[in-house]
Design the sequence.
């Protein structure tokens, strides 16, 4: 059985044109359509782990996930459960990362709650320690027993933020939680006549949450990282540069160069990616698999513009006016062995998603590569959160319109199904928050609705993950 490692993945031929012609393994044995990509699929022993089987949770017996044979999981942190601090577990589980803190295994988990209209009494934690007592989003911290993979305690760790979709871990032991909205104090009616805004604070920021904190701390925004429709971040541990994605139909890919590595609150410079010698290049359609682009960066003069409340594209327009590139709904973002991997959820000619890789160069610029573009919903439907596994494969959480999968991508550019949502009545709800434990033995996942967190383990070395 071939063993897969991180370096093999990252130096493999993932950017070949073959990555554009993939078809999913159909776990329930359906027949492939007329166009078969069977010869390009990862097979068991060559990246994939085999067909998916409905599997019961080891701790509760519930049938919630379909996994390859040999894999197990526990489920915990369900919406509505009472937490150790007395609060109820919030809904809308989303981005997440795992940390080791003084021998403890911890998760910090986002909750993508957007009450749209400012209202008292909606915070998930103590309003006195909340950034905005009229906003319902934030994060929870979960302490996990590494042996049983069950929950030991959990508590609110960020409160009063809004629409906390994704984010990312830092090398210095914290989680950056990102707001996917620019709603604020301004109150207005949307096109459908609904009231929006009216909060006590402006939103659209990133917040840092320490993994070692054992209680809710007062939240402080990081305006220098920009006020826009944030999705995720990834930090290059060598430089401390923070890369950021933006979830809009016309979106930018950003980087934040801090004045002092690891001290984001001290400010820095925000920039937006541009294609060298091709200003305002539109990556959303017309791309070829394996396409490579030389990258430069343009400065954002005002990362926290007053106009952002009325115009969510205020920061994006500054960069685009200087020639920055256009992407389609950038979401997941993860660092792996010298590169940043990120997803364009609705990118590509079929609008089913793209996966990009950015590799920095020593001169401050870099190389952008299109790793994968989905030709059909049955191949990949709306790639969202992603992470690099300790063994080198890419794990991709799907957020499409039908049944939902966690996919794996191998060094050879072949795709396979690793998990399927089989939660009764919620089969079309998205996966989110994929992250591995620091020892690489446990994959943690969320299903956003009804709000469940999973710990998955098994024979990882038998495949690409």
Sequence:
């Amino acid at each position: 059985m071939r063993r897969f490692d991180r370096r093999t993945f990252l130096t493999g031929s993932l950017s070949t044109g073959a990555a554009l012609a993939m078809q999913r393994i159909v776990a329930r044995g359906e027949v492939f359509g007329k166009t078969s990509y069977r010869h390009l699929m990862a097979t068991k022993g060559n990246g994939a782990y085999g067909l998916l089987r409905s599997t019961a949770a080891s701790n509760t017996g519930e049938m919630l996930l379909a996994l390859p044979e040999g894999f197990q999981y526990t489920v915990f942190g369900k919406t509505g459960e009472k937490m150790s601090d007395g609060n109820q577990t919030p809904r809308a589980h989303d981005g997440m990362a795992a940390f080791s803190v003084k021998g403890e295994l911890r998760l910090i988990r986002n909750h993508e709650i957007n009450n749209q209209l400012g209202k008292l009494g909606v915070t998930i934690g103590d309003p006195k320690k909340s950034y905005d007592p009229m906003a319902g989003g934030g994060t929870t911290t979960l302490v996990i027993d590494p042996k049983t993979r069950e929950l030991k305690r959990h508590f609110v760790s960020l409160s009063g933020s809004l629409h906390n979709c994704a984010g990312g871990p830092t090398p210095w032991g914290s989680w950056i939680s990102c707001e996917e909205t620019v709603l604020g104090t301004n109150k207005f009616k949307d096109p459908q006549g609904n009231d929006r805004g009216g909060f006590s604070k402006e939103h659209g920021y990133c917040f840092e949450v320490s993994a070692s904190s054992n209680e809710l701390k007062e939240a402080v925004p990081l305006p220098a990282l920009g006020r826009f429709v944030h999705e995720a971040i990834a930090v290059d541990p060598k430089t401390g540069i923070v890369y950021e994605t933006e979830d809009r139909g016309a979106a930018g890919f950003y980087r934040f160069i801090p004045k002092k590595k690891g001290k984001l609150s001290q400010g820095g410079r925000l920039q937006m990616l541009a294609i060298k010698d091709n200003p305002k290049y539109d990556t959303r359609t017309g791309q070829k698999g394996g396409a490579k682009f030389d990258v430069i960066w343009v400065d954002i003069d005002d990362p926290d513009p007053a106009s952002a409340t009325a115009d969510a594209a205020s920061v994006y327009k500054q960069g685009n006016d200087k020639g920055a590139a256009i992407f389609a709904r950038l979401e997941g973002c993860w660092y792996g062995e010298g590169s940043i991997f990120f997803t364009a959820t609705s990118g590509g000619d079929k609008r089913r998603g793209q996966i990009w890789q950015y590799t920095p160069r020593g001169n401050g610029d870099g190389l952008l590569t299109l790793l994968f573009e989905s030709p059909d919903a049955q191949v990949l439907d709306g790639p969202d959160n992603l992470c690099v596994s300790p063994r080198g494969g890419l794990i991709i959480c799907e957020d499409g319109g039908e049944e939902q999968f966690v996919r794996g991508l191998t060094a050879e550019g072949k795709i396979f199904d690793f998990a399927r949502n089989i939660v009764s009545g919620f089969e079309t709800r998205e996966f989110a928050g994929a992250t591995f434990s620091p020892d690489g033995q446990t994959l943690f996942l969320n299903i956003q609705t009804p709000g469940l967190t999973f710990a998955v383990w098994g024979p990882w070395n038998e495949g690409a993950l």
Observations:
- The first strand starts at residue 52 and ends at 56.
- The mean pLDDT is 91.
